[in-house]
Amino acid sequence: MWFLYILLALAVLILLLAITAKKSYRVSRSINIQRPAAQVFEYLKYLKNQDQWSPWDRKDPNMKKSYQGTDGEPGFVAHWEGNKEVGTGEQELKAIIPGKRVESELRFLKPFKSTSDAWLEVSTPNPGITTVEWGFTGKNTFPFSVMSHFVSMDKMIGKDFEEGLRNLKEQLEEKG
C-alpha cells in the first residue's frame, strides 16, 4: 500500500512541476566588433560562414553537413549530423532584414526533437563599431519543461554563444 502512496506523491510532484515550469526560453548574447555594420552583416547573412566561428563546429570537426538552396537567401537549409555534443538537426534561413537582422529556424532532431527561432542582429553604437546580438527562443514542452526547474537553458547555451561571438569577432577583425 505504501508503494501506491509514493507513486501518487511522485505523480502529484511531477504535475506540480509541470504546471509551474517555464513555458518558454530565451538565450542571447552580444559583442562589439570593430568593423562597419555593412561588412559584418554581409558576412552574417550566409549560414555557411558559421562554420568558421560556430562553437559547435569546433566541438565536432568531423561533423557531416549538407545544404539546400541558395545561401544568404530565405529558404536556405544547412543540415548537420554530429557527435553527441552537437547532435543532428538543421537550420533554415527564414528572413533577412537587410543590414539589420538574419532570422532562422533551428530544428533539432537528435538527441531530442525541438524547434527554436534564432537570430543574428547588428546595430551600430559608434562609427566603426558593430554590435552583434545572437540569440534564440523556443517553447519548453513536457517532459523537458519540468527540467527547467533544475537546468537553465541560458546557463547551458550562453557559454557557447559567448564563445561563438568571440570567434566571430576574431574572424572579422583579423580579416581587416
Brief sketch in words of this structure:
The chain has helices at residues 2-20, 37-44, 50-53, 55-59, 144-147, 153-175, and strands at 24-33, 64-68, 77-81, 88-97, 101-110, 114-126, 129-139.
What can you see in these coordinates?
This protein has 176 residues and is of the alpha+beta class. It has a single domain (2-175), classed as START domain (Alpha-D-Glucose-1,6-Bisphosphate, Chain A, domain 4, 2-Layer Sandwich), CATH 3.30.530.20. 36% of the residues lie in helices and 36% in strands. The protein has 6 helices and 7 strands. It has helices at residues 2-20, 37-44, 50-53, 55-59, 144-147, 153-175, and strands spanning 24-33, 64-68, 77-81, 88-97, 101-110, 114-126, 129-139. It has a 7-stranded antiparallel beta sheet with strand order 1-7-6-5-4-3-2. It starts with a helix and ends with a helix. The mean pLDDT is 85.
What is the strand and helix layout of this fold?
Layout (H helix, E strand, L loop, with lengths): L1 H19 L3 E10 L3 H8 L5 H4 L1 H5 L4 E5 L8 E5 L6 E10 L3 E10 L3 E13 L2 E11 L4 H4 L5 H23 L1
